[in-house]
Amino acid sequence: MEHYDLAIKKLKERGVTINDIAEVTLFLQTKYVKGLTLDHCIEEVKNVIKKRESINAILTGISIDEMTEKKLIDKELCDIIMDDEGLYGIDEILALSIVNVHGSIALTNFGYADKIKPGIVKIVDNDGHNGNKCNTFLDDIVCAIAASAASRIAHYGIEKK
Amino acid sequence: MEHYDLAIKKLKERGVTINDIAEVTLFLQTKYVKGLTLDHCIEEVKNVIKKRESINAILTGISIDEMTEKKLIDKELCDIIMDDEGLYGIDEILALSIVNVHGSIALTNFGYADKIKPGIVKIVDNDGHNGNKCNTFLDDIVCAIAASAASRIAHYGIEKK
Amino acid sequence: MEHYDLAIKKLKERGVTINDIAEVTLFLQTKYVKGLTLDHCIEEVKNVIKKRESINAILTGISIDEMTEKKLIDKELCDIIMDDEGLYGIDEILALSIVNVHGSIALTNFGYADKIKPGIVKIVDNDGHNGNKCNTFLDDIVCAIAASAASRIAHYGIEKK
Amino acid sequence: MEHYDLAIKKLKERGVTINDIAEVTLFLQTKYVKGLTLDHCIEEVKNVIKKRESINAILTGISIDEMTEKKLIDKELCDIIMDDEGLYGIDEILALSIVNVHGSIALTNFGYADKIKPGIVKIVDNDGHNGNKCNTFLDDIVCAIAASAASRIAHYGIEKK
Predict the structure, then answer these.
(1) What is the pLDDT of residues A95-142, one digit of tens each?
(2) What is the C-alpha separation between A76 and A84, in angstroms, rounded?
(3) How open is the CA angle A83-A85-A90, to the nearest 5 degrees?
């Protein structure tokens, strides 16, 4: 399987579709770009995920979430990751590998989405606090992809399409 | 004059007091820290500004804003900076020199504050779009200091005081 | 066990002592600071590791290396991490969580150490290409700690001691 | 004049040609890519400079160097920038706006080039310590462009051509 397809598959297994992420992008960018459609957002979300940085961040982050759920890593680290009261910090850093390559608009949108948790982000975040489920990395990855797609739209506009 | 005092003085000349920034910090952190006071925020804002990274970013950012207002730099760059429709990007990057040294909570709060522009940030931003005034760097610097102080409070709590 | 002690223990299990890292710091900083000793470097390496950002990066990075060795993560990701021809990128990003909080001197020293691989860095790197051993994250973490300690020495000098 | 052409012109006025930067890229990447030519490096240096992030960083950084030389900014900040003993830090941060969008290979190469100062970087650095000349930002910008072009070559190879 291609790495891109694997990344999409892993996201889906964890409850996140391209459509879900595109809706976050639409929410972030709709007030700045007249006539922005969900279809356009879907296209740009795909463009973001295609990048090597995104694929590696998605596969790695979801793996850590899964290892944590399965308690395959040291108990102390499991506890830190499961708690994630915002002080762990490695989840945001990993997401930066996606955000950084998309410039400063991606960065501010990432911080914004991470705080207000629109749509699927909130669902993923809540889900991660239920029982043994761990979405510590997933919610930051979703924010990072959505914010990076928003940045692509801000830079390239919608005429490009 | 000490560099710290100079940084405070320059901020004040541009219309920003420590109190103004502390109010942004209070806004950012009040829901997470029970009993957080403006006085505590003022203390942490001062701690942030004392750092060499902050002083250098404040002095440099405000200098660029001033040079732009006085049209002492190339017309093309002046136009890019004055317009600042979010695509310039150097203002956010400069602010990162403050944010980075305060960890990932500072980063997400910076992105959040930069988008919703609470209190003095909105005033500074509006002021920067009036006539020949340029606050392109100043508003990001204010967000960065407030977000970094919020991160200090999240990490150290209020017992430390 | 305290998280700091656990971080030190994990490093040791993977073949890296505080002394090893301090020697990299000494190598990086000796030409800039007259009279710099290994003891002083050891002190600053400890100060770096004590930070929450460092502990989390050490525990997380080593966990991924271990999961990769044990083939507990998806085969595709295992292959990407084991190969690490510099295109994976998540290892450097994770190390940035340590480097960023220590300012720009840490950043340039990190890039430098990552390229020339002094002392223990080279040993760890070579070791990671033998059979099923994986040190993809470990070598970047060592560079990040050594570079951050170098930055502390540059900023605070040796009088502070 | 197009912003790209202006950026090239400003670099040239400050003593740096595309060819000079491409030679640094060739130096950085020649051992990793068989058959890499200066012409290919020139092409990738141009691709880096074409990006909005690069143009804005080049124009802004050179403007600060020029303002500092002409003593148009506060004396205290002039002294900090002219001294640049590595503690100023804003020059490296500004260069990061170029480096970040090119991934982690760009980052490590940037740190490496900043430390060993190959070719034009050393010339620019020395020149900046003569009399009233200030190249504090310029040398980091050159390192950032060269390192980013090196990263493009590492990612895309030379077949792409």
Answers:
(1) 999 999 999 999 999 999 999 999 999 999 999 988 789 999 999 999
(2) 13
(3) 85
Between the two ends of chain D, the Cα-to-Cα distance in Å is 28
Q: What share of chain A is helix, strand, coil (3-state, %, to 5)?
A: 75, 0, 25
Give the CA distances from residue D127 to residues B13, D15, D122, in Å, rounded to whole numbers and listed in that order.
Answer: 35, 10, 8
Instruction: Say how far apart CA A86 and CA A66 lie, in whole Å.
Output: 19
**Domain assignment of residue B161, yes or no:** no
Count of CB pairs separated by less than 8 Å, A with B: 59
A49 occurs within a structural domain? yes
Tell me, yes or no, whether B145 lies in a domain.
yes
CATH number of the domain to which D7 belongs: 1.10.3760.10
- Tell me the shortest Cα–Cα distance from C33 to chain A, in angstroms: 32
Q: Nearest CA of chain C to the CA of D113: how many Å?
A: 8
Nearest chain C CA: its distance from A137 CA (Å): 12
Cα–Cα distance between A7 and A53 in angstroms, integer?
Answer: 11
N- to C-terminal Cα separation, chain B: 29
- Judged against a pLDDT cut of 60, whether residue B5 lies above it is answered with yes
In a domain, A161, yes or no: no
C66-85 burial code (b ≥16 CB/10 A, e <16): bbbbeebbbebbbebbbebe
Angle of the B52-69 helix axis to the B136-156 helix axis, nearest 10: 160
Mutate to test the interface with A, among D100, D102, D104, D110 (most CBs of A within 10 A): D100
For residues C142 and A123, give the distance between their C-alpha atoms in angstroms, rounded to a whole number.
Answer: 37
The chains in contact with chain B, meaning 3 or more Cβ pairs closer than 8 Å, are A, C, D
Distance CA(B32)–CA(D138), nearest Å, equals 43
Residues of C in contact with A10 (CB under 8 A): 74
Chain C CB contacts of B104 under 8 Å are: 97
Per-residue pLDDT at C131 = 79
Closest-CA residue of A relative to C95 is A93
Number of domains in chain A: 1
Amino acid letter, C26: L
Alpha carbon distance B72, B64 (integer Å): 10
The reply to whether the predicted model has a pTM over 0.90 is: yes
Confirm or reject contact between D100 and chain A (CB < 8 A): yes
Question: Which residue range(s) make up the domain with A102?
Answer: 3-156
The DSSP letter of residue B132 is T
Q: Which residues of A touch B107 (CB under 8 A)?
A: 92, 96, 107, 111
Which of C97, C98, C100 to mutate to probe the B interface, most B CBs <10 Å? C100
Most C CBs within 10 A among B98, B99, B101, hence the mutation to make, goes to B101
Q: Is B146 helix (H, G, I), strand (E, B) or coil?
A: helix
Whether residue C63 lies within 8 A of chain A, CB to CB, comes out as yes
Q: Are A97 and A56 in contact (CB under 8 A)?
A: yes
Question: What's the whole-number mean pLDDT along residues D111-134?
Answer: 93
How many residues are listed for chain A in this entry? 161
CB-based contact, C52 to chain B, within 8 Å: yes
Q: How close does chain C come to B103, measured CA to CA in Å?
A: 6
Closest CA relative to residue B22, chosen from B152, B125, B134, B157: B152
